[in-house]
Write a structure and sequence with these properties.
Elements lengths: L1 E2 L11 H20 L5 E5 L4 H4 L14 E6 L1 H18 L3 E2 L2 E2 L2 E3 L5 E5 L8 E5 L1 H9 L9 H5 L3 H8 L2 E5 L4 H7 L5 H18 L2 H7 L3 H22 L10 H5 L5 H13 L3 H22 L10 E3 L2 E5 L3 H8 L5 H5 L7 H4 L9 H13 L1
Parallel strand pairs: 3-8
Antiparallel strand pairs: 1-7, 2-3, 2-9, 4-5, 6-7, 10-11
Helix pairs in contact: 1-3, 8-10, 8-14, 9-10, 9-13, 10-13, 12-13
Length: 371
């Protein structure tokens, strides 16, 4: 068996397209021939650059290739998944459109397409049930009542990975309704998260200049970068788009319709060589985003001009004004019961490993709401 990395000797096919071809040309015919009458759904959702459409030939070096998720009913999964697996191992061809259909493993456990001249094929079809998969990713059942606490205890990238990608066939009739339900936050949860994001800006907007004023240029740059990131995340919220994992955060931001205006401004902030110059460009960004807020018409119009921070020579947008105005629009008991300035797990935790422990976050929120 010969591992295949990121080198490509033919036209690159995006992962979603390749996986759909794999389903339609290979998996679907085998299922129709060997398991006629089987009810199933097929999709490619979840983790992976190809699910978001950001994959390139470099992505081929791990966890990429002709693969898909096959969802079966609870009883059919228990009865047939081993038999279907064996049929695919024996009948899937060695390649599709020039890409190997068999996978090997790197030392770190990630998979890699691996060309083979003999069977069986170690194919990339995963066998799942809808309920188990979504419960595993979300830590709650999205077919039941979804509480406000449930929404904010899940990292945005997980909601994005479930609502992105593509459903190739939904014979079970479950995937598309769940994805539609998870498409974006309910209104009061959205308002809560908007207010929490403005609060993050309010807490640090005066510090970039203060660090620069005392000669801490590195600290000033660092806080400017944090403010840029927070303004970008606020923009995702304003546009009602889930923000992805950090690797694709900038790439996804560039697709927002406000990016053509904001990216040049943010770039000038990050390139500035003095805190005064940084402040000049941040001022433009603050005022632009404040106008975006007013365009949402979720509160009465707020002043969009920056002004001095008390008696100090720092120009800020006074972001707490937006926090108070937005929180005043939250009407539901569930929304009002959420911890006032905590926000979602993404807004108060910045650890990839910590964000894996969703059961701990839902417990923390439940305790705060009960209190």
């Amino acid at each position: 068996m010969r591992p295949r990395g990121g080198n490509l000797d033919h036209t690159f096919i995006k992962g979603l397209e390749l996986s759909e071809l794999f389903y339609k040309e290979v998996v679907k015919p085998i299922l129709a021939k060997r398991f006629s009458g089987l009810t199933y759904s097929a999709a490619l959702i979840g983790l992976g650059s190809e699910v978001l459409g950001f994959d390139t030939p470099q992505s081929m070096d791990h966890d990429w290739g002709p693969k898909l998720m096959l969802f079966l009913g609870e009883a059919d999964h228990e009865t047939y998944h081993n038999e279907i697996n064996q049929a695919l191992c024996q009948e899937v061809p060695g390649e599709i459109h020039g890409y190997p259909t068999s996978f090997g493993h790197h030392e770190d456990g990630t998979t890699v397409m691996t060309a083979t001249d003999t069977g069986p094929i170690n194919h990339g079809v995963m066998f799942l049930t809808v309920q188990c998969f979504f419960k595993y990713v979300l830590n709650f059942d999205p077919t039941g009542n979804i509480r406000a606490v449930d929404w904010i205890s899940v990292p945005e990238y997980r909601l994005l990975m479930l609502t992105s990608g593509r459903v190739f066939h939904d014979g079970l009739g479950q995937l598309e309704p769940i994805r539609a339900r998870l498409r974006y936050y309910p209104d009061d949860v959205w308002l809560y998260l908007l207010a929490a994001q403005w609060r993050r800006i309010a807490q640090e907007e005066a510090f970039m200049g203060r660090c620069g004023q005392v000669g801490d240029d590195l600290g000033s740059r660092l806080i400017a970068a944090r403010l840029v990131r927070d303004l970008m995340r606020l923009s995702f919220l304003m546009k009602r788009r889930y923000a992805p994992f950090v690797k694709w955060f900038g790439s996804a931001f560039a697709k927002l319709d406000c990016a053509s205006d904001l990216v040049p401004i943010f770039t000038r902030v990050l390139e500035a060589n003095s805190w005064e110059e940084r402040q000049t460009h941040l001022t433009v960004a603050y005022e632009f985003v404040a106008k975006m807020h007013n365009a949402l018409r979720i509160t009465e119009p707020l002043t969009t001009e920056v002004s001095q921070f008390h008696s100090r020579p720092f120009l800020v947008i006074h972001a707490d004004r937006f926090v108070d105005a937005i929180r005043a629009e939250i009407k539901s008991e569930e929304g009002l019961a959420l911890p006032e300035h905590l926000g979602s797990v993404d807004q108060f935790i910045d650890s990839t490993d910590a964000l894996r422990y969703l059961n701990r976050f839902s417990a923390v929120y439940d305790e705060n709401v009960a209190a």
